[in-house]
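Re: that backbone. C-alpha cells:
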C-alpha cells in the first residue's frame, strides 16, 4: 500500500482537521508502532503500522462511501458562499475527509445522493457512456397518460433541442396530482423536470430513489447519512459494465 503522511492519515480518519492533528502530534499524543512521532510529515504504511492517539488505535480507510437522504434546501456542492451544501450536513467525523457528492440533485430535490472521496467510482457512475439508471419518484401536476409513457420511451425533445434517451415511466396514480416512477439513463441538467415540461406537465415533487442497483434506504431520515455496507457498495460497482453503445440498447 502507498505510504501517506501521518497528519493526512489522522485527518482522513476523522481525528481532526490538518491543523488540529498537527497540534495533537506536537503534544506527543500520537504513536506509530509504540513510538511517539513528532513529525506530521512522517510517511506511514497504514496496512503495516499501528497508529494510536492517546493509546486509542486509529482505523484508517482510504475511501469512504456515504448514502445521504438529501433534504430540500441544500445544494449538491462541497462549498458555497450563499447556500447550505450537502457537506454541511455531514457529522463531525467526516468533516475533514474530502468527500464530494456523486452528481447533482437540484436544490429542491430529495433523496439518494452518494458522497465519496473515490474519484474513480464517481467517474464510473457519472460517465454518460455507462448509462447508469437513476430512478425518481415524482409528483406531477395534471394527469399523466400512457401517451406520456410512450413519449418518454421514445425519447423527448428537450428545450435545448437535445433528444433524451429512452426513459421508463411507470404511473403509480393518475390524478390531478399524479404519482410516477421515472428511470433515466443520463443526467442532464434538470432532466426530469424538463422531460415533463416537454409533455406539458410540471414536476411538483422529486425524490431520487435509485442509482445503479443501489436503492435509497427509506429508513434513513432526511438530512442524515450513513456509510454503505460492502453489499451496497458492490451494487455500485460499474467497473465491469462495458460502455454501452446506442445500438446495444436500441435507444
Ligand atoms: N432531474 C431533475 O429535474 N432534477 C434533479 O434534481 C434530478 C433529475
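Recovered sequence:
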Amino acid at each position: 500500500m502507498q505510504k501517506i503522511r501521518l497528519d493526512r492519515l489522522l485527518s482522513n480518519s476523522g481525528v481532526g482537521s490538518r491543523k488540529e492533528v498537527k497540534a495533537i502530534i506536537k503534544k506527543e499524543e500520537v504513536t506509530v508502532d509504540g513510538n511517539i512521532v513528532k513529525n506530521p510529515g512522517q510517511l506511514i504504511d497504514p496496512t503495516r503500522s499501528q497508529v494510536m492517539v492517546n493509546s486509542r488505535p486509529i482505523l484508517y480507510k482510504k475511501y469512504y462511501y456515504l448514502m445521504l437522504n438529501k433534504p430540500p434546501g441544500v445544494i449538491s456542492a462541497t462549498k458555497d458562499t450563499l447556500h447550505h451544501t450537502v457537506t454541511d450536513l455531514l457529522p463531525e467525523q467526516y468533516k475533514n475527509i474530502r468527500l464530494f457528492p456523486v452528481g447533482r440533485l437540484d436544490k429542491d430535490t430529495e433523496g439518494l445522493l452518494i458522497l465519496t472521496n473515490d474519484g474513480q467510482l464517481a467517474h464510473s457512475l457519472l460517465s454518460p457512456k455507462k448509462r447508469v439508471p437513476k430512478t425518481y419518484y415524482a409528483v406531477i401536476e395534471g394527469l399523466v397518460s400512457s401517451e406520456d409513457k410512450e413519449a418518454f420511451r421514445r425519447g423527448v425533445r428537450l428545450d435545448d433541442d437535445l433528444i433524451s434517451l429512452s426513459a421508463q415511466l411507470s404511473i403509480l396514480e393518475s390524478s390531478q396530482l399524479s404519482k410516477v416512477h421515472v428511470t433515466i439513463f443520463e443526467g442532464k441538467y434538470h432532466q426530469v423536470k424538463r422531460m415533463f415540461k416537454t409533455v406539458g406537465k410540471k414536476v411538483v415533487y422529486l425524490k431520487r430513489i435509485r442509482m445503479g442497483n443501489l436503492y435509497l434506504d427509506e429508513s434513513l431520515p432526511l438530512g442524515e447519512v450513513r456509510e454503505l455496507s460492502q453489499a451496497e457498495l458492490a451494487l455500485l460497482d460499474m467497473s465491469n459494465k462495458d460502455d454501452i453503445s446506442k445500438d446495444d440498447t436500441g435507444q
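Confidence is low (pLDDT under 50) at residues 244-251. Residues 65-128+214-235 form a domain with the Alpha-Beta Plaits fold (CATH 3.30.70.580).
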